[in-house]
Design goal:
Blueprint lengths: L6 H8 L12 H4 L2 E7 L2 E6 L9 H14 L6 E4 L12 H10 L1 E2 L8 H5 L13 E5 L7 E6 L5 E5 L3
Parallel strand pairs: 2-3, 4-7
Antiparallel strand pairs: 1-2, 5-6, 6-7
Length: 162
């Protein structure tokens, strides 16, 4: 029987499993990975998709299982939970920096405040100006909106606060 990887080793390895829609972010950065349980020879990863109908859910589950198998976990278990639901507040500070560097405005931390969620001030990820306006509430994916910066005249997407 081989030695099981530690929780720390598993968390580090899961940092390498990237989101299929935003390839600069890991599932850990996004807050999709909720928990890692190591009990004897069993490893369970608990994850919550960004929304219940996420089309990438099976691909993410498979990538997590493959990463754990690379670490020597013979039969990893990925448990998908929908309660509590995922929130954009779960994106890590590092994940927010990566989004901005990618040219995608990160969502504000709202802690459930509907005013922040529904009327966010969205700084431009290119120049930092707050002179931006929404041009379309639907971007390239369900979780994005399209904005325009009046300062640098650049269009950009924002990850919606959810």
């Amino acid at each position: 029987m081989s030695q099981m990887p530690s929780q720390e080793q598993i968390w580090r390895a899961l940092q390498e499993v990237m989101d299929p829609e935003i390839p600069v972010l890991s599932l850990v950065d996004l807050g999709i990975i909720r928990e890692v349980k190591v009990e004897g020879q069993e490893v369970t990863v608990v994850m919550t998709p960004t929304f219940s109908g996420c089309p990438a859910l099976e691909a993410m589950r498979q990538e997590v299982e493959e990463k754990l198998q690379e670490l020597g976990v013979p039969r990893p278990r990925v448990e998908v939970v929908l309660d509590p639901p995922w929130s954009s507040d779960q994106i890590s500070p590092e994940g927010r920096r990566k989004l901005e560097a990618f040219g995608l405005a990160p969502p504000p931390v709202h802690r459930g405040d509907p005013e922040i969620m529904l009327n966010p001030v969205v700084p431009c990820p290119y120049c930092g100006s707050r002179r931006t306006r929404v041009t379309n509430t639907f971007g390239s994916t369900l979780c994005r909106a399209i904005y325009y910066c009046d300062a640098c005249q650049q269009a950009f997407e924002q990850f919606k606060p959810l």
